[in-house]
Amino acid sequence: MLVSELTFPKERPFYRTYIELIGEVPLVEMLGRQLENFPKFLQSIPEDKLPYAYAEGKWTVAESLIHITDTERVFQHRALRFSRGDTTHLPGFDQHVYAVGSNAAVRSKESLIEEYKIVRQATLALFKYLDKDALQRTGIASDLEWSVAALGFVICGHQRHHRNILRERYL
């Protein structure tokens, strides 16, 4: 599935910006590319930068990396449920509460990279075997209607968004 095949309800322009960061690349291909490239980017981050935050009240580099993985887990879970036909309305999640509870200060760069890879491999395995019907199924999460494919593209775009922020403001 390509980004151009998605439709966007007006209620979620914020998420559309993530999706538009991806361009016209098939979803599974982009998930795989990022699995290959993002760990290399993470490896380039000096270990002593992990506790750095560019301003008071902003997340550290380590918290930002955990946020990327946590968000992928949440969106992957939503995609799984909706792809299987589960119509239960799913709640949102408070990313700031997750960041505070992440234990980022005690994490090594290697542990963050390992966790990212494991989560992305699971995401890739899920989306790789979804057919067009499953990708077009929808559900409600955070009071918004989502297609399974849109959730996958948001996972990719969210990661790219935060990689860009890390490059611009942290490194």
What can you see in these coordinates?
By secondary structure, this protein is mainly α. Helices cover 60% and strands 5% of the residues. It is built from seven helices and two strands, in the order ααααααββα. It has helices at 13-20, 27-43, 61-83, 95-100, 109-128, 132-136, 148-170, and strands spanning 138-141, 144-147. A two-stranded antiparallel ribbon has the order 1-2. A hairpin with a 2-residue loop joins β1 and β2 (144-147). α2 (27-43) packs parallel to α7 (148-170). The longest helix is centred in the middle third of the chain and has 23 residues, at 61-83. It is globular, with a radius of gyration of 16 Å. The termini are far apart. The mean pLDDT is 92.
Distance between the termini: 34 Å
Characterize the largest beta sheet: strand count, sense, and whether it forms a barrel: 2 strands, antiparallel
Give, in spatial order, the strands making up the sheet with the most strands. 1-2
Stretches where pLDDT is under 50 for at least 5 consecutive residues are: none
Mean pLDDT: 92
Radius of gyration: 16 Å
Percent range of helical residues: 55-70%
Q: Tell how many strands the DSSP assignment holds.
A: 2
| Backbone shape | globular
How does the helix and strand content classify structurally?
Answer: mainly alpha
Instruction: Work out the strand percent.
Output: under 5%
Number of helices, counting only DSSP H or I runs of 4 residues or more: 7
Q: What is the H-and-E element order?
A: HHHHHHEEH
